[in-house]
Amino acid sequence: MATPLSDPSQSPLQTIAVVGLGTMGTGIAEVLAKAGREVVGIDISEAQAAKCVAALEASTARGVERERLTEQDRADILARVRTSTDLEAAADADLVIEVAPESYEVKQQIFRELDGIVRPETILATGTNALSVTRLAADSSRPERVLGLHFFNPAPAMRLVEVVSSVLTAPAAVTAVTDLALDLGKEPVAVGDRPGFVADGLLFGYLNQAAAMYEAKYASREDIDAAMRLGCGLPMGPLALLDLIGVDTARTVLEAMYAASRDRLHAPAPILKQLSEAGLTGRKAGRGFYTYEAPDSPVVVRDALTPLEGGSLTAGREVRSVGVAGSGTMASGIAEVFAKGGYEVVIAARSEEKAQAAKARIGKSLARSVDKGRLTAEAAAQTLDRITPTGTYDDFADVDLAVEAVAEDLEVKRQLFAALDKVCKPGAVLATTTSSLPVVACARATSRPQDVIGMHFFNPAPAMKLVEVVRTVLTADDVHATVREVCGRIRKHAVDCGDRAGFIVNALLFPYLNNAIKMVQEHYASLDDIDAAMRLGGGYPMGPFELLDVVGLDVSLAIEKVLHREFRDPGLAPAPLLEHLVAAGCLGRKTGRGFREYAKR
Predict the structure, then answer these.
(1) Is 321 a catalytic residue?
(2) 111, 166, 391, 486 - which has most CB atoms within 10 Å?
(3) pLDDT band, very low/low/confident/very high, at 436 (cuts 50, 70, 90)
(4) What average pLDDT does the segment 267-283 reach?
């Protein structure tokens, strides 16, 4: 059973009214009742109130079946909840939590009526995630008792609660609801009043950019979603998440954010308006970016946009051997992946010693896999035997596919491609692993630009399943087909994208990271609160500042500059705080200090 962390009888907030009994209001009522609070659920619809009670009965019954609750627990929880269609039922509440539709008019009317019903000391909380808490408070006769209490859906499962203060909010009210959130087993994060607060403020900008990327036909909905799941470890892709949230809801949140920020990254993508006005609002309607089995069903079904099974109709070129140029972590990881896939691999570095060191690194990686039971000793030995280290690119003469993984410097890569052009046999596919540079610039350094393509692996290459396959306007169809087939053989998930800065993952990830830095720079929220908000409220495996310090602040700044230079959007300009930290040599974990300090190795 979800038990409160302290004795609920010691809290000043004993009786709590929840106004609005939709999915969120019902979830909040359940959390409160399980934590020992008396709950008054209020909704203008009798049917909705009855639906709330039925949902509570069903969820507590599941709790008993799973042995998380006893029958007595269940009876006590249900006895603590009563419902009404009249706001007067909130008269004895110590706290009222309003979760009505996202409309100033609706919410202001509720607050005005509550002013005449509740006691002077009662706290009034709005569950809005898009509207101004200050504006709602200013219309109340007790603005010092009004604040935001933003739960995340589903409320019983999601641990994050954003406690939102306006300039009018009394500190005592903030303390009382923060203590309540802790009693509920939640993690409260204190934030100021701006549209989207922390979690949604960062999340919805990212979702909006994903919608715009799809609308521009840069990549398919399936590839955008797969890229962000596999490249960033997210539980859902952005377009599937928009369908879950509701396309209309996302549009409302973004419009509120744009009205406040005038940041073009928050201006709702036109496709959100088009889908909303067509009634294609996502799962709840049975169709949004995807088509579902039925309204409210999570089951996606085929539609006219679903890719055909079997992939490309173009035959690829035969690939038996692969050359990997480079000796760093990425080059070693890519060579290991190809060797595990059964390919003969030549790894070439600037010297024989560096190439031998790269092979030794691969040997240690394979040994770790053996120790963990992921690979047999025999398979590891066979894999290592397929790798030939060399100090000259001349040994790429017979490879069918050459993949470069050298420094992220365009001139260095262009010189390498010019060398590969002379060494590699006709018909060999030449690939770059660049994450931010134009693939076509590498292609133009050769006499065969039609044979050049991007294969953006993610670090660590043996573990990460994603490869972004980047076609230029000059790439031949059979070269694209070849790389797709190779990705299948090495057990990677290939996503297609065009040759523009950031491809899919970095183009969506780094503006989100940059916006998080701006929040800290503006003293809106702390590093720890932002990281907690995105882990707990957004399902991210790491908070933005944890991730920035792992990636490296210098790498992050370089990618931000490339994105800003290509898209010319002022909202993509690197945050000055990031530039200052890089200038000071604070590059993240690798230097012992970035946004946080780390113990020296």
Answers:
(1) no
(2) 486
(3) confident
(4) 97
Residue 394, burial from CB neighbour count under 10 angstroms (0-12, 13-18, 19+): exposed
Specify whether 456 is catalytic. yes
99 CB-near residues (< 8 Å, 6+ apart): 18, 19, 20, 22, 24, 25, 28, 127, 151
Decide if 523 is catalytic.
Answer: no
One of 150, 266, 456, 480 is an active-site residue; which one?
456
Q: Which of 365, 506, 515, 556 is catalytic?
A: 506
Cβ-proximal residues to 375 (8 Å cutoff; 6+ apart), any chain? 366, 369, 383
Q: Which residue in the list 468, 480, 556, 564 is annotated as catalytic?
A: 468
Q: Domains in the chain, start-ordered, CATH in brackets? A: 15-193 (3.40.50.720), 199-285 (1.10.1040.10), 321-502 (3.40.50.720), 513-591 (1.10.1040.10)
pLDDT tens-digit series, residues 561-586: 999 999 999 989 999 999 999 999 99
- Give the per-residue pLDDT at 5: 44
Based on the residue annotation, tell me whether 506 is a catalytic residue of this protein. yes
The CA distances from residue 472 to 112, 283, 429, 497, in Å, are 59, 35, 14, 9
State both tokens at 305.
């946009």
Are 376 and 369 in contact, with CB atoms under 8 Å apart? Answer: no
What pLDDT sits at residue 18?
A: 98
What's this model's pTM, rounded to 2 decimal places? Answer: 0.89
**364: buried, middle or exposed (CB in 10 Å: 19+, 13-18, 0-12)?**
exposed
What are the beta bridge partners of residue 18?
A: 41, 97
Looking at mean pLDDT, say which of 132-141, 306-315, 496-505, 531-540 comes out highest: 496-505
Residue type, position 487, single letter: C
Instruction: Name the β-bridge partners of 54.
Output: none
Do 172 and 551 form a contact (C-beta atoms < 8 A)? no
Question: Which residue of the set 261, 327, 365, 435 is catalytic?
Answer: 435
Predicted pLDDT at 2: 37
Residue 325 three-state SS? strand
From residue 590, give the alpha-carbon distance in Å to each of 59, 460, 560, 599.
Answer: 47, 16, 19, 11
